[in-house]
């Protein structure tokens, strides 16, 4: 972990780490706002932690570590260090598998939650605590690395089971935030393109709206067909049939609600583009849930399918796996984290959720500077009068995101199982299916809320 983080704390990233670091090599980086550069750096920090966690779950890592002189296969007792013939050797079982990911994410989430406590109530960059938020990057990396190393000295005991419950609670809270971001993205995308079409009356924007609407619905319908072909191969797959059929019916309903005259009376820009985004995301969650089903008879062997042998059952392997579904889930997760961290100050409901709806008194134009004088290459402080987002809530969200990625990597793993169930966990199935239902319910609420609460203003 230290080696990976050390690489990214080198001078190449210094320009994007804050004003102090930028002054060392500002010519290599374009101008950017202090609030933006800090959020980018925290996102990079989380990405690096995620990569290390993925490495810890890599099949064969433990056997590779056993070739290292100071590493041996331990008996899984409560200590990280095992004294053998007066030599201190590392128990390899402690640095691989789900428990190692738990320890890594424990340290990372603790770091973000402590940062959230330290930045409570900060109103502007004139607060002395601003330097903690926007500077001291080398020190923060060292503290994080030290915390990760220290986490591996926590005795096993009940740590895994207790931390799993914290992870499930925090992960589910982040799921709610992620769903709001997806819905907000759908609304913002549609409103932006409809507004441009209304302003310009260009057929190009109209065709773009139609194309992406039908394209996303076509992808969703194709997904449903493939689900029925590959995930309902036996009569024992009735649960999968229920998931596919029920979510398909719900998606049809929300699409109809999107274009109801009453809804469009209160939200003239509501339409099928938003519905297509939510429908496609619901189909993704449905697929993600079914790939986590413990019954391998209801999942296809994609290697056999690609080779043209038809939808045969997935082979039951005794080796731990980290499949494509988990990778796709992580990609979507990190995109959502970046989306939330890079939202502009007063953009939409997601920005208000992260407390970033305050209007900055300093305009972006003040960062133009004189390129020839070198003024255009720096990180400028745009929060002297007011912060662009709630620093405390931002770190809270990243702490929850860390717990979510921990549960995603381990597929909501239960400590009394083994690594062979990484891709077969009934808890993960229901978490993702319930998430799809919550997503649909939240989307419907954004459509009907202006009708039900007519005395309130919804922007």
Molecular structure report:
Strands 2-4-3 form a three-stranded mixed β-sheet, with no helix packed on it. The protein has a two-stranded parallel ribbon with strand order 1-5. The two termini are 44 Å apart. It is mainly alpha-helical. Helix 11 runs antiparallel to helix 13, helix 13 packs antiparallel against helix 18 and helix 15 (324-341) packs antiparallel against helix 17 (391-409). Helix content is 60%, strand content 3%. It has helices at 2-8, 11-14, 19-22, 34-56, 61-65, 97-118, 130-134, 137-151, 159-200, 203-230, 238-258, 261-266, 272-291, 302-306, 324-341, 349-353, 391-409, 426-452, and strands at residues 32-33, 71-72, 81-84, 87-91, 379-380. The chain crosses the membrane at residues 40-58, 100-122, 134-156, 162-183, 204-230, 242-260, 272-290, 393-413, 433-453. Its main location: membrane. Pfam families: Serinc (PF03348). This is Serine incorporator.
Q: Main beta sheet: strand number and arrangement?
A: 3 strands, mixed
Number of helices: 18
Question: Count the strands?
Answer: 5
The percentage of residues in β strands lies in under 5%
Helical proportion?
55-70%
Q: What's the overall average pLDDT, rounded? A: 74
- State the end-to-end distance: 44 Å
Organism: Petrolisthes cinctipes (Flat porcelain crab)
Main location: membrane
Protein name: Serine incorporator
Pfam families: Serinc
Question: What key phrases describe this protein's structure?
Answer:
459 residues; mainly alpha; three-stranded mixed sheet; two-stranded parallel sheet; 18 helices; 5 strands; 60% helix; disordered N terminus
